[in-house]
């Protein structure tokens, strides 16, 4: 079993400093796997939970903890749509654009959200409250059109329900 590279102090890279608790959590996660790189998604999520997104300078720091190359971590970080590589709002709204949701009105839902929030896909409201993003599937095909706000999935959702939903996310 390949062990993560031990370090006597907090990992830093170009001004980015991993929080000691995050570093410990990554090492603990990596210890569960024969190949520490298997903990890459969880390590990225650990950074994202603390910062709200994964800054570029976090990639080499995570790679050092896991004992893998930065390109491996970058590949995972850019592949998964729920790992945010740029700052996002306090609340992230994911609008499902799968075939099932499209057939049940996801385009109208997305348009209503854009109008209500005053932003398009990939944008964040001026107050930093919401970021609106598309997602290829939420796994809520029986409840389309569906959306997800933070960790909460809603569906089917009509435009008339948006005001009430959004109020629950200050």
Mean pLDDT: 91
Shape by Cα distribution: elongated
Strand and helix order: EEHHHHEHHEEEEH
CATH topology of the largest domain: Glutaredoxin
The CATH architecture of the largest domain would be 3-Layer(aba) Sandwich
Largest sheet: 5 strands, mixed
Q: What class would the helix/strand composition place it in?
A: alpha+beta
Estimated share of beta-strand residues? 5-15%
Q: Identify the strand order in the major beta sheet.
A: 4-5-3-6-7
Q: CATH-wise, what's the superfamily of the largest domain?
A: Glutaredoxin
Number of domains: 2
Cα end-to-end separation: 46 Å
Structure description:
The chain has 170 residues and is α+β, with helices and mostly antiparallel strands. The protein folds into two domains: 12-79, Orthogonal Bundle (Arc Repressor Mutant, subunit A); 91-167, Glutaredoxin (3-Layer(aba) Sandwich). 38% of the residues lie in helices and 14% in strands. The chain is built from seven helices and seven strands, in the order ββααααβααββββα. The strands form two sheets. A five-stranded mixed sheet has the order 4-5-3-6-7, covered by helices on one side. β1 (12-13) and β2 form a beta hairpin.
């Amino acid at each position: 079993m390949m062990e993560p590279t031990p370090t006597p102090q907090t990992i830093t890279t170009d001004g980015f400093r991993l929080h000691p608790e995050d570093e410990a959590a990554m090492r603990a996660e990596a210890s569960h796997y024969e190949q520490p790189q298997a903990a890459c998604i969880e390590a990225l999520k650990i950074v994202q939970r603390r910062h709200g997104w994964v800054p570029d300078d976090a990639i080499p720091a995570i790679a050092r903890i896991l004992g893998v190359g930065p390109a491996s971590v970058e590949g995972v970080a850019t592949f998964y749509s729920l790992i945010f590589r740029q700052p996002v709002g306090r609340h992230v709204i994911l609008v499902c654009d799968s075939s099932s949701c499209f057939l049940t009105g996801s385009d109208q839902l997305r348009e209503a959200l854009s109008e209500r929030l005053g932003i398009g896909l990939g944008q964040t409201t001026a107050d930093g409250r919401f970021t609106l993003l598309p997602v290829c599937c939420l796994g809520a095909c029986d409840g389309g059109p569906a959306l997800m706000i933070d960790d909460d999935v809603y569906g089917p959702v009509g435009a008339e329900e948006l005001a009430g939903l959004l109020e629950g996310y200050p």
